[in-house]
Automatic annotation (TrEMBL):
Keywords: DNA-binding, Transcription, Transcription regulation
InterPro entries: GntR_C, TF_FadR/GntR_C, Tscrpt_reg_HTH_GntR, WH-like_DNA-bd_sf, WH_DNA-bd_sf
Pfam hit, one: GntR
Cross-referenced SMART domains: FCD, HTH_GNTR
Organism, as annotated: Acuticoccus sediminis
GO molecular function annotation: DNA binding; DNA-binding transcription factor activity
Name assigned to this protein: GntR family transcriptional regulator
Residue ranges of every copy of the HTH gntR-type domain listed in the record: 14-81
Record keyword Protein transport present: no
Length: 246
């Protein structure tokens, strides 16, 4: 069954554990559960309405995805963040996404083009709302940003690569959500140009822009000064006055 990776409602045939897994995962990616926070089973049991046994299964699953760290008998924590990991994730994302994008541009059909246009339209509406100062649209932006990037590479016909890219994308996106939410006009302009280059079947242009697009996100995030250099670090408090998003 297909469903949104960001959806938290139950679908027919799903268990309470399935829904709790998506809720906890979403809360980590969106920064509601911050880096290195202790994941206390008694608290989580109440918050997500699942048993301790189910929680252990969920947290072990998230540990495999490297969104949670297991500490043996001491339990679990939300995975730490660091500048080095962010750059690693960006490099992996570029490697996977650019390869998948090239394959999709070469092999995608008319339905694929329509999916790209549709995904970009949805994303552009949310970006316009954010640029007009509607912060409540941030989580919708995360969903539709993923939707657009996924649509662009969906014709690569390599399921294993798509699964790996999905995991890397979420871990990379967590840094955005932790420090700035939405990067403003430059990222919206990049998305529009990417759409146009993809529809023009310009492989070299699209790959070059995508590479710059991902790295500019890294540079902006690190420019906030909130990401620690060490792997054991937690998010640093924001500088005062706050850096404007534009």
């Amino acid at each position: 069954m297909e469903f949104s990776r960001f959806e938290t409602a139950a679908y027919d045939g799903e268990t309470v554990g399935d829904v709790a897994y998506r809720r906890i995962r979403s809360d980590i990616v969106n920064g509601r559960l911050p880096p290195v926070e202790k994941l206390k089973l008694d608290t989580l049991k109440t918050t997500y309405n699942v048993s301790v046994t189910t929680l252990r299964e969920i947290l072990n699953r998230l540990a495999v995805e490297e969104l949670v760290t297991a500490e043996g008998q001491r339990g679990f924590r939300v995975a730490p963040i660091s500048a080095a990991e962010l750059q690693e994730l960006a490099d992996l994302r570029v490697l996977l996404e650019c390869h998948a994008l090239e394959k999709s541009i070469r092999h995608g059909d008319l339905d694929w083009e329509a999916d790209v246009v549709s995904a970009h339209y949805k994303l552009s509406v949310i970006e316009a709302a954010l640029l007009e100062g509607q912060p409540s649209a941030v989580e919708r932006w995360v969903r539709h940003d993923w939707g657009f990037h996924h649509a662009m590479i969906s014709a690569c016909n390599t399921r294993a690569m798509m699964r790996t890219h999905s995991s890397i994308f979420d871990r990379y996106m967590r840094y955005h959500m932790l420090v700035l939410d939405f990067r403003g006009r430059p990222v919206a302009d990049d998305h529009q140009r990417l759409r146009d280059l993809v529809l023009a079947r310009d492989v070299d242009g699209a790959v070059a822009l995508l590479t710059r697009h991902v790295q500019s996100g890294v540079d902006y995030i690190l420019g906030t000064g909130r990401i620690p250099r060490t792997e054991a670090g937690a998010l640093k408090p924001p500088a005062s006055p706050a850096r404007p998003v534009a």
